[in-house]
Every structure is written in structure tokens, then in C-alpha cells.
Amino acid sequence: MSLDSPKEPAIELVGIDKKFGTVHANKNINLTVAKGSIHGIIGENGAGKSTLMSILYGFYHADHGEIRISGKPVTIRDSQAAIAAGIGMVHQHFMLVENFTVLENVMLGAEGGQLLAKGVASARKELKRLEDDYGLEVDPDAVIEELPVGSQQRVEILKALYRGADILILDEPTGVLTPPEADHLFKVLRVLRDQGKTIILITHKLREIMAITDTVSVMRRGEMVATRKTAETTVEELAELMVGRRVLLRVEKGAANPGAVLMSVRNLTVKDSRGVTMVDDVSFDVRAGEIVGIAGVAGNGQSELLEAIAGIRKPSSGEILIHGKSVAGVDPAGLRDLGLAHIPEDRHHMGLVLKFEEYENSVLGYHRDAKYGRGPLLDLEAMRKDAEEKIGKYDIRPPNPRLRTANFSGGNQQKIVVAREIERDPKMLIIGQPTRGVDIGAIEFIHKRIIEMRDAGKAVLLVSVELDEIRSLSDRILVMFAGKIVGEKSGEAGEQTLGLMMAGIAA
Amino acid sequence: MDYFDIFISILGSAVRLSIPLLFTALAGLFSERAGIFDIGLEGKMLASAFAAACVAYWTGNAWFGLLGGIGVSIAFSFVHGFASITNRGNQIVSGVALNFVAAGLTIVLGQAWFRQGGRTGQVPPEGRFSSIVLPGADMMRDVPIIGPLYANVISGNNILTYIAFLMVPISWWVLYRTRFGLRLRAVGENPGAVDTAGISVAWMRYRSLIVAGFLCGFAGTYLSIAQSAAFINNMSAGKGYIALAALIFAKWKPVPVMLACLLFGFLDAFANFMQGKSLPLIGEVPVQIFQALPYILTCVLLAGFIGTARPPKAGGVPYTKER
């Protein structure tokens, strides 16, 4: 799988093989990454990308195979050995101590002696140098939890560089970033590459691969199926390699046919638990047979708006009307009875009980429905049969209603939630981040279901931080910035226009 | 006695009553800041009180008694660690189990060895930590205000009392000024960060428990051979729980821990003083009210009325490497 490269290799993986019980996570992986390049590794969730990188970082040990750094075979027994070999890792979930300062986080594990005092001074100096060399500006005395996510990630990169990393692995680095933060990250990565660092970028976002990498490898079901020069491949080819079949990247949909107003929001103001106004005097309608998308950078009030409409968070003023009637004080169960279904933003936190078996989650929230019960008792048989039907219809894998929900992949977990909410045939559907952490195949499937709902005359309100998703699904787009709706555009609005509105620059 | 004398005598008694709380709360500080809940402090204190009394009784040496107390307390820490770190068991269950073991074992062994209904034998004077009169205490006694304070509150305590107060700045220094402290605090907040930095989470947590066992050993020793002259059944009497309350009340910080322990010690001393006395207008105040106050105050604090208590984030959660 190696490419002809004029530069010497920074990393070579030869015949890496890893099994977890019966799961063959990595099958005979060969990979060569040239020094001073950005190499992307792309694949669906569960394709084995993270396992491979964990082996490289000493979290796991390969059953077979060899790792060579700069041509020399190395044994990476633990993270300490990886650090010593010049490998740094930026994890998807940051490994930062939130109530520590930037400086303390950077020093942790590389304190330079039993007492902190001496190390602090030299760490401060070194941070300043890294900041100047790579444009990684962060206040060393800032406390992590008070920093925006983009800066926290910069601290992770600084941590790796501080330990002398020449090879930097980034695991899904943009998952938590806003578009401007992602742009900034890419800028930093290019500077790092130009200064001779080698970067491995793990992602399932094709656009990022195209935007930043020099070479790219595709993983599928534990195998490395292809390696390409980025300039010589296309998004379509990569998607096909990832999934193993042709994938529709654009959603096909006809013109909308909006009917009566089913759901209205009037002068709604919502505060968060700290008392900060997150939704500020917002009004809009959603009609039958249309998809209204709410675009915005995460944290601009979309989550609170969704929660208010779903009856989870109490608005401080304004009202929500369903079929023209105010639903103030109606609880989520009452709203469901009025025909409102809610696919929450965070399936782990709100959508599912991960310890429950699949069939339990597949009726959760609707368990009071007559068909699942016999008096005060649940009809488990009926629940399981119902779950099996949904599993068939939504191609949920593995097709086992008795499996713990935690054991399904992200995409399949999301399908469980989607199936539950859509199959009850609601009149209105509100959806938060329908495809966050979901692989391409499942994204295509979920998008189709959402369009079908619209075509069946349902009112759909969609919130997503993925601008592409909003643009491809919505008939109308509302842009939220700092709690206000700053403008409305048609579904055909350009990315640039919306991007500026999301940044609060244009209306 | 005028009111000032009464105040001084309550204050002196408050200091004495707060010492076991202080040692124990500092012990809890180390283990909880490392992410290990230690409800077993009570049991450790009790077991070390018993061990200290036994060793002091047999050897007639208070320092050997202290070593015995510390040793047993650390041994309990290891059991807690083995259950909750190595085997990732529930820390509360393990702690409660240790409390029961300590309560039962001290009685059984005490009865087997001394046959006095669970008491140990009377420890001879040289096997105890007795009061130290600081230089000039008698001379100062007649100086107004400062004199009695120095002579009756600051002077006249045993060596463990001074060690307890010395432990406060030492704990602060260890936690905030050393590599060990930085890693310990990190492991209680985000063990993943410690693990990916190439440091063993389990070994860090074991070390924090050893420190906790060490400090708790002082608390037990103080009970049996400094404050009294023998081990008595269940002589810790819930002090481990009050120390935990003090730890929460102090928001897991060393200096506030000392202040909280002094406050709770003062409430205890005041309760003792009020026993059988009646106040004008109110009449006799039930002592139980004062005894309950530490818990009530802690509940009020936890309910968010006095700022917010932010416990270590990873507290109580066994660490598992994630994929």
C-alpha cells in the first residue's frame, strides 16, 4: 500500500494485526507515512482507525506486526514509550484536566522534577517558543474550562509538541469545532507540516480529507483498502471505498409543498441553568410538508430552543403554539400525545438509556401506549415484536432486540432513536444533530427518512451544526446567532452567505 | 467562672476534639482528590485506634503505638485499593464493608486478647502521648486575654495535636507545589489525561490511599492513646463521617478543611458544655441539636446555599481504559 515518495518515511506499519475476542479490528495493516506530510485515514465508525492509532500510541498491543519510526523498528509498550518515540496524540475527547491551567496541563507528566517551581519557569519559556514558532497562541495561565473548545484543542497540540513530538496523530479533531475554529486548526497543521512535522489525521469527514491532506488511506472493516494521493482522488471515490458500494452524497428531493402552519414559536425567550439568555425573542412558523433548518455555530441557542419546544426546558417568556394552541406547561409526554416527536441532539444523554436492551429503548417514551401494555404491566412480547419490525425496516445491526444498546455502533444507535420517533407517525418532528457521529451509509439512510417525513406532509424542524446537512435538507433556513434569528434564506442559499450570517457579520 | 474563662475552656476542648477530625479529613482530602471516595475513614480510624492501643499496651511505647496505628490503617487502605482500584469495585460498598469489618474485628480481637468486653487494657503513662507544657505557659497565664489563650489553648496539648496542625500547610504544599500533588489532583479530575501522559493511574491512586492511611493512623492513635488511655468499643463514634462532612464543607481544600474541623470541634465542645444547662427563655437545649449541626451545615452547603461544592470530577468512578 505504500506510495512512491521522494521523502523518507516517518512511520511504517508492517502487517499490524489485532483481535478483540472474535472481533478482528485490524487485519494485516500496512501503512507508510512520509516525513513532513499530512496523511488522512478515513473510514466509517468501527472500521478500525482508532484501534490502529491506539496501537501506535501504546494503548493496545498488536498481536502481530512491526512499527518503524524513521526506519528503525520500535516496540511501543505504553504511552510513555510512544511519547519517547516522538509520537503525540490529540484525542477526540480531550485529555485535559478542566480545572487546571494551560500550563499545568502541559506540564502534567513532564514536570521536570519532584517540585513544580523549577519546571514552571522553563515550561513557560518553552510554551512561548512553541507559540511563536507555530502560531499556537494560548494564555498559559488560563483555566481550561474557561477556554473555548478550539483553544482547548490547541492546548492538546501544545502538550504533544512540548513533549517533543515529531509525529502528531489527531483523532476526529474537528468534531467539536466551529467552522472558523476548524479553519484555524488547518492553518496550524499546515504550519506544523511545513516545519517538518508529520501529521496523521483520522476522520470520517471527506471534505476535510480533501481540504488538508497530502495522502489518504481508506479503512473498511479492519482492512486498509486503499491509499491515494489526495490530489488524484475524488470525494466520490473515497466514499465508495469507505462504504464498499456507491453512496449518494447529495440528498435527492423534490420541491416542497407546504400546507397549514402546525407549529409556531412566538417571541420565545429561554434562559439556561446559569440564567444567561440563550434564546432571545425568537419567532417562526413551521408548516406541514416543509423542513425548516436552523443553522448556527454550536452554542448560539439552538439547543435551548429545541429543548424548549420539546417541553424539557421552560421558556422565561413567549409561547409555543401547536395547531394554534399554546402548549405552555404541557410536559414532553403531553407534547407527544399532540403529535410532536423529538430526536434529541445527544443520543447518549437524552435519546437512549445505554444500559437498556435495544427493544426497551425502541419504545422508551411511548411505553404508555396501549399496544405495549396490559394494565400496569408492560407487554414485553409486544415490545420485542415491535422492535424487531423496526430493526428490519431500518436495517439496524446487529438485528438483535435483546442486545444492550451500548453495544451498537453510533449509527445504529441513532437509527434506533430515529425509528422510534418516526414510526409512531407524528405530525411534527423536531430533530437535533440527526447524524452527529454517524457513518456515511447511515447518514444517507436517515436523510432519506427525513425527506420522506416531509413528503408525507409532516412539519419538520431541523437543527444541525453541519451546514452541509442544513443546506441539503432544508426548504427554508433560519440562521441563529447569539440567541436571535438573524435572517431567513431559502434552501438554495450559498455556503458563503450563510457562513457570514452564522458568524454574525451579515444579516 | 466568668464568660471569658468559659470561652477559653470550650476553645481548649474544641481544639482537642477537632484533632481526630483534622487528621481524618486530611486523609480524605488525599484520597478524594485522587478520585477515590473514602467512606471507610471511620473504619480505618477505629482499627488504628485499636492497633495503637494494643501495641502501646504491649510495648509501653507511644511511638510504637503510633506505628501500629498507621500500619493497620494503611493495610485497610490497601484492601480498599485492591477492591476499588485493581478490581474496579464500587468505592462506597468497599468503604462501608471496611467500616463493618473494623467495628466487628476490634471487638472480637479485643475480647479475645483482653477479656474486658471489647476494651483493651489500660495503657501505662509512658505508652501514651501526654500534654506538653510550652515554655512560658505558666508565666503567661496572668497576662489578660493572650495569657489564658496561650496557656490553656495553645500550650498543654500533646505532640499529635501540633503534628495535626503542621500537616495542614504540609498537605497544601504537597498538593499544590509538588509533582506528586499535581498528578494526584489530575487523577481525581481526569484520569485519562494522566494515563495518556504516560503515568500509571492505578499506582497514583494507590499512593494517595497510602497517604490517606498514614494520616488516618494518626487520628486513631490520637483517640486511643492521646485522648484516652485505652481502646473502647466503637470509640470513633461517627467521627469519620463528620470528618467527611468537614471535607465536603471545606470544598476539598486543605486550609478550609482545618477551619471546618475546628468549627465542628467547637460545636462538639459546645454541646458538651451545654449538657444539662438551660438557657434563659429557651430552657434546656437538647444536645443532639449541636451534634447534628455538622451534618445540617453540610447539607445546607451541598444544597447550594453557601456557594457550590465542586467535588473532584472523577471521584467514585473506577478508571477503565477506553478504546
Automatic annotation (TrEMBL), chain B:
Membrane topology label: Multi-pass membrane protein
UniProt subcellular location: Cell membrane
Segments crossing the lipid bilayer: 6-29, 64-85, 92-114, 159-176, 206-225, 287-306
Keywords: Cell membrane, Membrane, Transmembrane, Transmembrane helix
Molecular-function GO terms, alphabetical: transmembrane transporter activity
Domain of life per record: Bacteria
InterPro entries: ABC_transp_permease
Gene Ontology CC, one term: plasma membrane
Protein name: Putative ABC-type transport system, permease component
